[in-house]
Amino acid sequence: MKKIVIVCLLFTSYVFAAFQDGNVLYDAAIEYNKLNNNIKANSVEYGFYIGYVEGVSDAYNGILFCEPYNTKGRQVLDIVFKYLKNNPEKRNKAANILILDALQKIWPCKNKK
């Protein structure tokens, strides 16, 4: 029974994550940016931003993009924020796709043989 509950929770969180778009992510990123500038920010929003971006980054690093060794989490968050800010026309796309697009442009993987 415990395994069924865990599987259901994981599936629910995946479905929730899959339906986020760039507009939702950008709104959360604005809260993250406020926090970085010592402005009162919505902790739920910036927490969502940090968790979502780091989750996608961790899942696909070394597969769809290749982050350099010793990259700090804040760098990843800042790169995605800058991408969302500079590409408002793309924010209607899925949030995970936008994160991957931002990171692939900065850190493409070299061809592996």
Polypeptide structure, described:
- The chain is an all-alpha fold and about 110 residues long.
- The protein has a single domain (about 20-105), classed as 10k-s Protein, Hypothetical Protein A, Chain A.
- It is about 65% helix and about 0% strand.
- It has helices at about 1-20, 20-35, 45-60, 75-85, 95-105.
- The N and C termini lie far apart (about 45 Å).
Shape summary: globular
Task: Predict the CATH topology.
Answer: 10k-s Protein, Hypothetical Protein A, Chain A
How many structural domains does the protein architecture include?
Answer: 1
Low-confidence stretches: 5-16
Oligomer: single chain
Q: What are the secondary-structure elements, in order, as H or E?
A: HHHHH
Could you give the distance between the termini?
45 Å
Largest sheet: none
Number of helices: 5
CATH class: Mainly Alpha
Query: Can you give the mean pLDDT?
Result: 85
**Architecture in CATH?**
Orthogonal Bundle
Strand content: under 5%
Supply Rg: 15 Å
Tell me the number of strands. 0
Helix content: 55-70%
Structural class call reads mainly alpha
